[in-house]
Amino acid sequence: MTAPGSGALRALVVQHEEPTPAGLVMDWLGERNAAVDVWRIDVEDREVDARDYGLIVPLGSEHPAYDDTIPWLEPEKRLLLDATDADVPVLGICFGGQLMARLLGGDAFRSEMPEIGWLPTRTHDADLVSEGPWFQWHFDTFTPPPGAEVVADNEAGPQAFVAGRCLGVQFHPEVTPRIMEDWVRAYRHELDAEGVDPDGLLEETRRRAGAARAQAWRLFDGFMERAGADDATRASALEG
User: Fold this and answer.
1) Active-site residues: which are they?
2) Residue 7: pLDDT band by 50, 70, 90 thresholds?
3) Cα–Cα 20 to 30 A to 201, which of 51, 100, 117, 177?
4) CA 86 to CA 2: how far, in whole Å?
5) Of 10, 57, 55, whose CA–CA distance to 34 is shortest?
């Protein structure tokens, strides 16, 4: 866990594979002087209590959120259900958002319109989710949970929803040029199958890096404000 400052937010980042780190989420938490615990759920066998944190961020994954044969999926499902029961804010990214949608009563499934690239969204709440473009790399989609507010979508399906203190997004606000370089190496076969030019993707990611960082900060800050995750009365969000 990174060292916290006085009264620091305690955040848990759930990472599923080596090539899928938190990227800009970690940078943003660092600027907030948060105490960050990264749980490599695919390789670490340990107990994690959702109530120890003021924010939980389940990241993307190469696995589908509807595959119950994944060995680490049950522990993650328990964690996120416990977070919901304890009213702990959750920011679910791609796989993480799909899994939260599923756990809250929606569904996750294979999409008829996979997306890879920097693509715009239709925003229904521009103060939270801008039109983008946001980076997409997914082959699955989801239906929003009952009662959730869809705050962004496009032709492929919902792109962001809010349900209580949960924000689930289909896109990747955490992506950085370094992460993109790793993804191009690790998942080149997916780019080839979809006819996506890896060099063009890397060039566009580097060109958009500054703007992507700014819109990610707006999303993260807006979520924190709306979820009340900065409320000093929430003991789980404070160190000590």
Assistant:
1) 94, 172, 174
2) low
3) 100
4) 24
5) 10
User: CA dist 96 to 51, 56, 153, 180, 203, Å?
Assistant: 18, 10, 17, 19, 27
Q: What is the per-residue pLDDT across 93-139, written as a single tens digit (0 to 9) for each?
A: 999 999 999 999 999 999 999 999 999 999 999 999 999 999 999 99
Contact 113, 156 (CB under 8 A): yes
Could you identify the residue written with the tokens 């997306």? 115
**Amino acid, res. 103:** L
